[in-house]
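Q: What structure does this chain adopt?
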Amino acid sequence: MRKGFTLTGILAIWLVAGCTTHRPDPVPFLGIPEAESSDQGPVGLINGQPCQIKNVTAVSETTYREYQTAKQAGRVFAEETHGNIVYYAVKEYRDVRFDNASAWVEVIERFKAKKP
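A:
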């Protein structure tokens, strides 16, 4: 009976350790964790509701081919490689219309693509 308890205890520890060691750490790209966005853009009302434009997006997954296309077109202004993942960013300018004003906003869209 004691032997079975020990084996069960070892199995439980192994499972817990295995689950915690395989969880990837969030990767900060351009100083912001990949799942987060930046709320430093302008604030206004759209249809009477407060709205803040995010000027740096959360990281979206894309294909390596899309990365290469953006790179060849000269749209990539920042990139980092972490293992077999390329993180890259492109800038876009958007005209955002609020109820009583408009703003020309620079938005940095962040992506990641797995290398083949």
